[in-house]
Design a protein that fits this description.
The complex is a heterodimer of chains A (389) and B (291).
Chain A: H1 2-11, E1 25-29, H2 34-45, E2 52-55, E3 64-68, H3 73-82, E4 87-90, H4 95-106, E5 111-118, E6 124-130, E7 141-146, H5 153-169, H6 174-182, E8 184-188, H7 193-201, H8 254-266, E9 269-277, E10 281-284, H9 296-314, E11 319-322, H10 323-326, H11 334-340, E12 345-351, H12 366-386
Parallel strand pairs in A: 7-8, 7-9, 9-12, 10-11
Antiparallel strand pairs in A: 1-3, 1-4, 2-3, 5-6, 6-8, 10-12
Helix pairs in contact in A: 4-5, 5-12, 6-12, 9-12
Chain B: H1 25-31, H2 48-75, E1 82-94, E2 100-110, E3 121-130, E4 133-143, H3 148-164, H4 186-203, E5 210-224, E6 227-238, E7 244-253, E8 260-265, E9 275-279, E10 287-288
Parallel strand pairs in B: 4-10
Antiparallel strand pairs in B: 1-2, 2-3, 3-4, 5-6, 6-7, 7-8, 8-9
Classes of the chains: A alpha/beta (389), B alpha+beta (291).
Family (chain B): Belongs to the protease inhibitor I47 (latexin) family.
GO molecular function, one term (chain B): metalloendopeptidase inhibitor activity
Organism (chain B): Odobenus rosmarus divergens
Amino acid sequence: MKWILFFGALIGLSICGRKRFFGDQVFRINVRNGDEISKLSQLVNSDNLKLNVWKSPSTFGRPMDVLVPSVSLQPVKSFLKSQGLEYSVTIEDLQIYREMDSIAGDFPELASRVKIGHSFENRPMYVLKFSTAEGRRRRPAIWLNAGIHSREWISQATAIWTARKIVSDYGKDPAITSILEKMDIFLLPVANPDGYVYTQTQNRLWRKTRSHNPGSPCVGADPNRNWNASFAGEGASDNPCSEVYHGPHANSEVEVKSVVDFIQEHGDFKCFIDLHSYSQLLMYPYGYTVKKAADADELDKVARCAAKALASLSGTTYQVGPTCTTVYPASGSSIDWAYDNGIKYAFTFELRDTGHYGFLLPANQIIPTAEETWLGLKTIMEHVRDNLY
Amino acid sequence: MPPSRRPPPASRPGGPRPGVLLAPLLLLALQGVAAAAPAGAGGPEDTPGLQDAELQRGLLQQAARAALHFFNFRAGSPSALRVLAAVLEGRARVNPKKECQVDLVFTTDHYNPEAGEERLGKCSARVFFRNQKPRPAINVTCTRLIEKNKRQQEDYLLYTHMKQLKTPLDIVSIPDSHGHIDPSLRPIWDLAFLGSSYVMWEKTTQFLHYYMAQISSVNQWKTNDDAVDFDYTVLLHEFSTQEIIPCRIHLVWYPGKPLKVKYHCQELQMPEEASGTEESSAVAPTELNNS
């Protein structure tokens, strides 16, 4: 599978031994007696399933953890069922978190992994901070947000590729080097970890968070309608079953609140970019009103420049404009909040494609998408660098 | 909706195709306040022309998509499916009943582009949206398409491939989570898209538009000497509400014959459920060759 090649390339030398890929699951299998142990050995030793034992039970009554590649999920489940073996599925470590750790480990002078909070289901929210500042001096900063809508997998993938790109190109590419001389970059590749896990294990097309809505059978709120910018206005729903349910109140979603708190505490963000898919659009505020933003003309120019740079790589064309009229009215969105809170350079990317594959973009388009998007991101960041306020 | 006027060419919806000219949206922006005052929202700080132009562009794209779904369905040919390339020009008229007639010209690409193939088809259409009611009335003609005999040949080839397929009932989804479609299953996807085109046309309004996200199950796949009998569930993605709508579709297809489709969609939010049946009439869309 192409995703395997992609992450193989990404992870490379930094992880020895086991490798994990999107869609793989860790099965925690209960072993109660010797008979069950031998049944399990049968399973684990079968060549074609390519299972990987992570934790072997030292005694009965302790579970065995086995990494099951996504292609083997069906046969393993059938086997366990037929043998009466009890199991549960756990995701111990998101692959992306391990890659983030690896990047921070490989480039400790430049990158660090920072925990900014946790999700509803208590998963950590990690950002990568890229900084060349001495000590703890605060610099004007850029926020790159990804994966807020969990099914938009090209977003998380582009983000983690970009993280690796930043550290690899620093000191070699004059653009990113000069940007990092003046500013810090914070990158949140998985802004909605619970949703992301859910798309891997239960429902590939899940969009929202996984928070519970009292009194409703429906789960989750749209984290990109939950920000405090015309919250519960037009372009959001008060129905918990809706894909654009705004939540009970602004920042009710802990994933959103974590980012808001961090950014406000920092106090010196100049740029906020949110990565989504799909449609190939590059947009700026507002989503919650057709009223023109005060800086719309400048933002429009910057966005057009960025779209042009993006297109220069493979000819991928993006439409540019304010959110409300380019895609649809949307209240409580991240970039509207950022903009109304003094972060002037606020943009949303809707990445590839334009509907042929939609959310299910084939793996062989990840790197081309990330590469062209990088050109667009750099254009914006260079403009911010040259127009600090 | 503004009274009829001719806006400059709208920009291309996009897609990774090098060398295609992008009609500048900037032109629309510069047009400024030439148009009559737009209906609805906006205070003195607006640039009515720009906002108006954006809405116009959105409506034209909406109309183009609807026209293409209808065209694909009527053509009944899984090897000759078209997608929207760019809207070239168009105008909209609204009547007192808030029904909206859109006349437009747009270009199309092959749904499955082959290497080196750059033939853009061109279509003109009249699309009549019935004030938020679905199933817009459509007249559409397209040019520069695959010649009829060649198309039927390719359909027949596809049909023979389908006959050779082992019954794919154990397939859980197409594509898989990573967007992968096994080449041997591609004909299933194309045929499913053809059937879904009918459904998507019927459900489109001036505000709602759909994409086919995934085939979530194949319930029945029967091929015999005079038809492919295909019963499947597809997940449609409605863009403005972001909802995923499962639709059970049953189609019967044979190369050169009109497509028969029955469907039933689960409308999770709305009280009514949408379903429909169509037996495509024998009238094929008129094709003008090499115009």
